Amino acid sequence: MNRLMERLQTTFIVAAKSLRDNAACQFLIGSIITAHVSVLNVQADELFYGVSEDISNISTVSSSKREEDIFSAPLSMSVVSGEQIKRAGILTVPEALKLVPGVIVREQTNGQFEVHIRGFDNTPTGGTMTSLSNKLTLVMIDNRTVYNYFDGGLFWETLPVGIDDIERIEVIRGAASALYGPNAVNGVIHIITKRAKGNPQAEANLVAGTHSTQKGHIAAEQNIGASHIRLSGFIDQRDRYQSTYYSFADDEYLPFDEINFPPGLDVYPDPEQAREVKAVTLAINNDPSEMLVYDFSFSHQDSRVQKVHLNAGTIPFTVNDSNTDAVNAKINYNNLQFRVSHQWGNQETLGFSDFKYDLAINQASLEYDYRLPKWIIRPGISYENITYDGSFIGGENTLRNTGYLLRTEYFPAPDYRLIVALRYDDYNTPSDGYFSYQVIGNYQLRHDTLLRASVQTANSSPFMLDSYLDLQFTRPNNPTQRLDFKGDKEGDLKTVTTFELGMRHQFNFNNWLDIELFHSELEDFTAVINKGTEFDGNQFVTTNLREALPTEATQLGITVDWHYEEIDWDMNVYLTAQDTDVKDQFETRSEPLVLFDTDNKGTPDYYGGINTNWRPMERWNINANAYYMSNHTFILEPSKGTKKFASAIYANFTVSHQFNNSVKGFVSAKNLSNKNESQYFYTDNIDPLYVIGISLKWSE
Amino acid sequence: MEWFRTRNAKVFIFLLSLLLSGLGYACEKFQVNGANSWFPYFYRGELPPGTMGNNGIIGDIVFQAISRIGIKAELNNQAPWKRILYDLRNGKLDIVAGALKTKEREKIFSFSSPVFYSEFRIFVRAEKQFQFTNLEDLIGKNGIKIRGMSLGQNVDNYAFENLIIEDATDTSSLFKMVAAERVDYGIFYLHSGLSELRKLQLDKALVALPKPLTREALYVAFSKKSECQPQIQVLSQEIEIMKTDGSIQKIADLYAGSVNTVNNKRVIKGHE
Question: Does the interface predicted TM-score (ipTM) exceed 0.90?
Fold first, then answer.
């Protein structure tokens, strides 16, 4: 408790300091106070609440691990439905996340994205190319964690989910390890896929567009006895937005054949192609109302993409191959929930012979809901066994974790709700266990106003490279030099503590507002530090060891999310404003370390969007959406340098028409922008993309 | 007597029409709407088998009453319930056929007298019926209701303190979970529930316990901003006449056929 009080005290000191130092924050806090005051003065009409004869269209979310009305959800969260995605002409999961408040989405090339929740990206600055990627967000498909445990983060192209397979995506902002497990550090992206429900049906979705963009998707649903079966598959092929690459050596974009690739790195089989992704999923489930509920799925994906991954040294892009299979089984017996999954396959970065590995990820969890009047208690246990086999990590290595979960939900009065979730993770490496918690209080101030407050902690999991990195790399062009890299099995895991205040208010039945004020503290950084170079008799050996750093990062921000709906049109406007600071940022990762405090420039201070739909007449829908990021700067290690991103807005327009019950078509214009410069570290300039699509559906 | 009242009303309407047309005032037709799917009270589309009506009991009452006073009516498009009430408040709609009455609503709408009653009943598996005389009989049992559905202040308060009631997102899930023994009982409107059970082919497996959990009067709601206020007065009177001349009973009987087929043998007759 003392520690909690100290944290709270520190939080408010930091908040006060930020207020003092930052005019934007002053404006921000002023705005939220004004918004709160004005909101509380609104006399919302009680006419529409409390009594409703209409019981249809109840929107539900499961962010707190229990299905409930989104208005009552205790966490900072948003939902984007499959229908919203289709109306906006969206083609990939990361693109759909542009419709979600508090999410930073950057496109590297056609269809290849990097996604962050609230930032903390490129923190601390001065790392390698991979330091720009997101390693702090947990992504799940139907409760199965999909994660890159090799070096953290997610390979988005490896999701075996077509955009037409998505039922909805739930995004939780803030630390959520206690409910969801390790790596839910900045939040959770949970993709819930479609399941067969009723009559047999089949559908085909075809899309074609500029830059050789081609997508095909098919799905068929059939019932066999009490089981519902859904088989779906898709293929997504695209070319890059440009044929040139940025050359670090030349500091300019050059045609592929004019770039000097060092030996072993000239593995770009098709420099024009951005991605080729194929996947198939088979799902079998029964009615979720039954006493015994089952949901089995098998998926396979095969992908080759160009993206920013390793420190290629010559150009930002590498070509990554991934071939994985996964089975996921969920079995519920009344209030007992059991899940087990197994994923296996191999992944490779072409040209990096050491970065080729086989993987096997096994997960299992068991949870039980025990209900009493005013109480819901949910104890649980989870187990992970993650094995990677690759030369980067000196052969086969395993990460194991047993997690113990206790979640309690208590309703002291009808208007109050208190959730306490505790979790203890026992890893094989590091040997220290990690404790995370979420304490969340909800107060229904009025029938139309919900206030929320929470304190939450989360930690990342160990990654293979962090723990088992074991590489001796002799420079091919200079055999007298050798670089040694060593991980640290006992290295600290990144930990974040998030404090949040939130409010949801319905001005009227068609007009509601969600505001969240957040402060996060990120600590327990580790980095590979250059310890110096020595001559071992044969070679000059530069030793690089993973070590703990005193670096800490803090973030103070606000997200405002406003929805307005009419019968024939709707609008959603959302904006996040945040300030990120780093304490003990290093100058370079070479000893002796020179540390200093700084504002983090790698995360935009402002980002958000607008999404509107207009139905001018029956069967027609016109969607206009736009996404905005303010200026920020990518700062990498000195050999790579920096790159500024000037604030830009990207607009997308989609017109869709339902020709009849079986045929629907759409046309989209995407990435219409005032600045089409690269959104990442010297990746492709973002071109407009024009696509046309048709959906065919048959049902009994 | 009824003939006298009907005739008086028609004369009144005629005179009123003359007066209003002289003032340049026009109420060409009533704009009517109701809940999207609230069988048997208000309903759209194809009605369940064994049902003879058109738009549910209260929908048919309203349209018949409007027809009897010689005014046209337009059934508006399906819309979210809150939108319907919003339009009624602003005068875009004149009538909502079937609504509960609350103090807040009375400030903004005018209401007919009760035209029908809706009962919340406890649905259980046929072989697992239990004695239900008061709320204490539900202690220790697991129940389910539709999320967000209020059972009335007293029942809500008691349930919060003493009962375990889960939420279902739709009627189908609610009854299936009762049938699958996931819960001991489900709470739902009697007639809507019986209709849903037939649709799910669970009408043999589940029954409604005889004692209602709560009983709510249903009304026709009128806009106070309607341009048809005089006609609304007449319509309201016509509905009163229909209560006494047996018209409402006849309409209810059109729906009673479907309700009677279930094992509870319940006939709709609760109106005043």
Answer: no
